[in-house]
Amino acid sequence: MEDQDFLLFIKKIKEHTSIDLALYKEAQMKRRLTTLRMKRGYNTFVAFFDAMMKDKELFYEFLDRMTINVSEFWRNPNRWELVEQKFVPEMLKKNRRLKVWSAACSTGEEPYTLAMILAEQGALNEAHLHATDIDDGALEKARKAVYLDRSLRDVPEKYAKKYFRQEQMMYHITDDLKKSIKFQKQNLLVDTFDMGYDLIVCRNVIIYFTEEAKHVLYQKFSKALKPGGLLFVGSTEQIFSPGQYDLEPADTFFYRKKGV
CB count, 10 Å around CB of 182? Predict the structure, then answer.
């Protein structure tokens, strides 16, 4: 009965939201959602679903638990140093109008990190910087751009001083960075992607998908990149056969679209 209850929940979620929980690793997803369901006092997933459809805040909490909105600026700093010191300068030598996408951007730390790097190199005003996520609650936080100090622990000092304004315990992103990013809702597994990106950053999300869903995503990301463009993935998301997606390793956790 418990399995049938969860399967019906998956079916109802897909019918009402286009989110297919069957494409996520079942054990991890079921464990996280069971914890949330019991915490909120619902005996079954069907009862939990019915409550979510009436309570927007509960639905946002479900999305937050599903998408693991744990993010920081400059997460894995040595990888961001490569973006800052190697890859972006290389791109700017060829083209000053970069097209950059932060996919599954969560609460905005990642696209704002990208915006800081582009601004510091004088390329932000000419860049097209796009950020998407499936979670309306996360996108709302990203647009507000107000963060706790723990999110800033890896931000280089020169960036922290220049691009944040402290008010009591909170840190506000400067207005010029906020205006530079176009935030939109998107379901990576269902929606079509724009094309011609110089850089796509999608980190610490793909790990939660099944192998079949990963395969589809990597194909879609590859098609969205321009020849020579880069895909930047998370530290647990190595692509073992990048050639099947017309990609090749550019550095650890960076893959380049073939064709240049």
Answer: 12
